[in-house]
Design brief:
This protein is an alpha/beta fold. The protein contains 16 helices and 23 strands.
């Protein structure tokens, strides 16, 4: 098998240098190494930032009309080539093709939102704030900005940030995950085809060396990050210490509260889709189902029945509903929680290690089927840790209040959901729950592009959520202008303007 060479994209073209360090890229369904990605040195990152700095001087002055034309062209290319991009995601992440297409669709929503940048950047104007004095506000770009994105959504998560950043007049240096690097280069080439000037969008691949240099580089004005909570905290603390604006979205332990009056078939379907979609490797996955008894037994039975029919296989197979995990090391880490949960006293209802895998050439792939635990208690590792895999834990509670207290006591606050037919209970939940994104009979409440994505507590470091109105404000700075013009009809004097105004 010929292994692909993946390298940086700088100044509108593939980098032609020689890297000193590299990383292997795998096909998770077979376990085979399919590519080698170059790791950027400090000098490589510096080169990308210098290029972005030079491009910013021109790009910030490009008219909003021209920027919008380029954004629309990028959007059309994304639509036309979404199947190609999805195939790349499947080959390096392992998620099924439909999940990859869904990821791209959600990213395109943000591109479409950014196409409205002339409206989004519109300022305010107050005439005659004082005698002969007008005051108005404008928003201006920051400069070169960095995006550090995770492996689990190699197209969507970068598109949470860079369309708005570019539309607002910034230049972008993207550092994607080294586990799934190729989607970033594909997107960079689409930008080139759309007419984006060279240097406005660059890609540097690598590991901690590249991340640290972006966090420390004086030319980078802001950092947008998505990943685990420990790394998010590190990114936030390091970036802000170096004077940067930072939005660092961290981990999650999302709970789904099911009340006794809920439609249990709807709730069971939602739990399976939200718990095992993309093999559970998403920050909005439901990993804890809180069942208000007496519905626990029936709900667990319904989920178990649905798991038995779930087709697990390579993402390129049209009938696969769940693919492998991203690496062998991550699969082994997730698998270790199955033994830990059982040892701690939870009931292992469905053991994902026994789930059938359909597809040829999968013997060495990074497989773990959907896993279901019941009778899970706070304090168990499977409850407290962000497992980031296809492991769903059921916790039994006796009342709504007990379930709410459990959710609010969790250190994470990314997403949550309630399943009920009681409008009063739902309204109370949305008001009382201490979580950033809430679903009511919706298991994965990812906001649409004109709202903003982000959690509370240990799920977010910084004050700004991703995309939407908050994203526009994050990638721009406000400036208030107070102006007075001398009146030429009075000999250059602004008559009547009091000195104490």
């Amino acid at each position: 098998m010929t292994r692909r060479h993946i390298t940086h994209w700088i100044s509108g073209q593939t980098w032609t240098g020689t890297a000193e360090r590299h990383g292997d890229v795998y096909d998770p369904s077979t376990g085979q190494v399919t590519g080698r990605v170059d790791f950027a040195s400090v000098a490589d990152v510096d080169h990308a930032v210098v290029t972005a700095t030079t491009a910013f001087k021109q790009w910030r002055s490009v008219s909003l009309a021209k920027r919008t034309q380029i954004l629309f062209a990028f959007r059309e290319l994304l639509n036309a080539k979404r199947d190609e991009l999805a195939a790349i995601i499947v080959s390096e992440h392992g998620k099924v093709h439909s999940d990859a297409l869904g990821e791209i669709a959600r990213g395109i929503e943000v591109v479409e939102y950014a196409c409205g940048i002339p409206h989004l950047l519109r300022g305010g104007f107050t005439e005659q704030a004082s005698t002969g004095v007008d005051v108005y506000s404008i928003r201006q770009p920051l400069g070169p900005v960095a995006v550090i994105s995770p492996f689990n959504f190699p197209a969507m998560v970068p598109m949470w940030f860079f369309p708005i950043a570019i539309a607002a007049g910034n230049t972008v240096v993207l550092k994607p995950s080294e586990k799934a690097p190729s989607a970033a280069n594909f997107l960079a080439d689409l930008w080139k085809q759309a007419g984006l000037p060279d240097g406005v969008f660059s890609v540097v691949h690598g590991d901690k060396v590249a991340v640290d240099r972006l966090l420390e580089h004086p030319g980078i004005k802001s950092v947008s990050f998505v990943g685990s909570t420990p790394i998010a905290r590190y990114v936030y603390e390091t970036g802000t210490r170096h004077g940067k604006r930072v939005q660092a979205l961290g981990g999650a332990k999302n709970h789904m509260l099911v009340l006794p009056d809920a439609d249990l078939d709807l709730a069971a379907d939602a739990a399976v889709n939200a718990g095992f979609g993309a093999a559970g490797e998403r920050c909005m996955a439901i990993s804890v189902l809180v069942a208000v008894d007496p519905v626990g037994d029936e709900l667990v039975e319904k989920i178990e029945q649905r798991i038995a029919t779930l087709k697990v296989g390579p993402g390129c197979n049209g009938d696969s509903e769940m693919g492998p995990l991203v690496t062998g090391a991550h699969r082994d880490k997730v698998t270790s929680y199955l033994d830990a949960g059982a040892a701690e006293g939870a009931n292992l209802v469905v053991d994902g290690r026994k789930h059938p895998i359909s597809g040829e050439g999968t013997d060495e792939g990074f497989w773990l089927g959907p896993t279901l635990f019941d009778q899970v208690e706070p304090g168990m590792s499977i409850y407290g840790d962000e497992i980031f895999g296809p492991v769903l834990s059921v916790v039994r509670v006796s009342s709504y209040d007990e379930g709410l207290d459990l959710i609010n006591a969790n250190p994470y606050g990314n997403g949550t959901a309630i399943f009920t037919n009681d409008g009063g209970a739902a309204r109370r939940f949305q008001n009382e729950v201490e979580v950033g994104m809430v679903g009511i009979n919706v298991p994965i409440p990812v906001p649409v592009s004109y709202y903003s994505f982000g959690g509370w507590k240990a799920s977010l470091f910084g004050d700004s959520h991703a995309y939407g109105e908050e994203g526009v404000k994050f990638f721009t700075r406000g400036k208030a202008v107070t102006q007075r013009w001398l009146d030429p009809s009075h000999g250059g004097l602004n008559l009547g303007f009091p000195t104490n105004d």
